[in-house]
Amino acid sequence: MKPQKLFPILLVGLPAGLLFIGVLAMVNSHIQKSKGPEDPNEAIRLEAAALNRRPVNRETLEMHLRTLCEKIGERHVGKIENLEKAAFWIESTLGPTNLGYVVKREEYELGTSQPDAEQPDRVRNLVAELPGRSLRDEIVIVGAHYDTVPGCPGANDNGTGLVGLISIAQALAGEQQERTIRFVAFVNEEPPYFQTDEMGSRVHARGCADREENIVAMISLDGIGHFSDEADSQKAPPGLEGQIPTVGNFLALVANENSRFLADQAKTVFEATSGVPAVAGGFPESIPGVGWSDHWSFWQEGFPAVMATDTIPFRYEHYHKPTDTVDQLDFEQLETVVKGLEEVVRAWANPGS
What is the pTM of this model? Predict the structure, then answer.
């Protein structure tokens, strides 16, 4: 080719080529950012965790509940040894030698919520993540509190929510979804820390906001083990009289107005996969019960969040009593409910699928 013909081609082609390379670099950078930092050990951990994957089943649910509620018992800062035992048990159960998750301790100091009582200096949430693939920076949180009120073994409140979380984590072990799934066992949901700055979920939600994390959905599992087909077995919270069924055989999916879309999505998936009826909606926080769990903490930071519950105080006569024991629960129904909630988490973690 003659030089006089080559120069015009270079003048046009070289900038175009550089532009093309630049676009490719930007796209590649965006993809790498969405996937998060490379971890050479991540694939190994996921493969190892997959060996421990098991479907949700009633035997495991019952075994975990009996460990938590009978071998450990009531667990709160007034019985700090039991609270510590529960934390260690959760950490061990989710951890590398069992379900294969890397469990992080989210420790924080207690201050003045209970100034006249002896209390530990530090308590902790337990955090385990299943990293996502293409949408790694988008996070779905599955949360449940592991503490109880004094004098209560907490089988339904909130043993059922916690073992439901663990069972979902086991069913998904090593199986990456599109979005990241974060499992969090919260401390200090119960009074005197309830809806204070020292509530475990409040600490975690504030941290999410401070880190500017993209929390696309949060579900709090709280009291999911008591159902009844008897007439008038369900009471309505003040302000909702006549608006919910009078038979307590449904799961409630409770949202505020900004999270209503999550409750609606969850209801559709849950009913289709479990066969259990669900009541879902966005409700004013002024209605008793609507904000009574860890989802409330995420509402305070503007994150979309839903509570899955059997409506405990409006159905369960053993609520916050010494009689809240494992023998009060229907494990066949609990298994069905947890399987349905697993599918809800899968749906949220794989948008558009």
Answer: 0.88
